[in-house]
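Example (one chain per record):
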Amino acid sequence: MASQEQITVESEKLRERLEELEETQRATLNILEDFDAEKEKLRVLQRATMNLLEDFDEERKQSQLFQRATLNLLEDMDAERDKLGETQLALMNMLEDIEEERVRAEQAKVLLARSNTELEQFAYVASHDLQEPLRMISSYVQLLSRRYKGRLDKDADEFIAYAVDGTLRMQQLINDLLAYSRVGTRGKPPMPTSFEDVLSKAMANLKMAVVESRAQVTHDQLPTAMADELQIVQLFQNLIGNAIKFKGQGTPQIHISARPEGKEWIFSVRDNGIGIDPQFHERIFVLFQRLHGREEYPGTGIGLTISKKIVERHGGRIWLESEPGKGTTFYFTIPLQKKVEPIRYVKQNEGR
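Predicted structure:
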């Protein structure tokens, strides 16, 4: 009996031991499962760490590239700064040169204005003083021509004719030179001026030339502008007179017009005359420059020079468009609102 109980007890203990072993086995299996899960997590973490290291390595490479690019940029900036410094220095030198040139230009402008004033004064005084002795010479030469023409030999008549012609041309030259000098010394203050009236007065002065040449002179409506009326009359008279003088084979046809453009009036005097070669378009405005002989076309070659001076005194420009055989169009501008150059009066000697 005792032995049976002992066996039972041992069996019970063995059963409990087996249960404990089974429990331990289950716990071990759970631990192994947990270990596998942790191992898998560890592998995932390892892969993530590897990816992170790869990203970090890529970032490090990009950082190195950025660092190198920054260094290159800094080097370029240093080079550009040096260049900028050199450019700034060159610019400063250039500005100094420009300022020196401006000062010299201003000084030259003052000297030129003074020289022009003195030249105009000289021209006025010289032409004024030459009038009387030349008038005396002309009178006596013409007296010789009337009294002794045909009484001496042919050479004497020819010489007297040359003397008469020379004194007349000299007198005309002096008169034109006097007119040129008076543009700047005897002008009047600008006033509202009707260019319609100005043209009428110029045409009245040219009446004989218009009738003799049978010229047809037409015009559009002309404006009113600030101007020296007498000088503008002279300007129109010179331009229209030239159109009549240098006419072609047919009847002279002359048309005057004006149009506003920007801040100025642009006037034009168009003709159907002989025209002017483009190579002479600048030359004709130079003092005493002629394109034709005196026998063919009389005059001193100063009319267009006076015209240019009148236009410039009014703050404008003058130019032309022309070709040989196709007529000529002279253009000049008058500002819409512009003060005319101040008058410079020449002081005359007492008793003159």
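Caption: Residues 342-352 have pLDDT under 50 and may be disordered.
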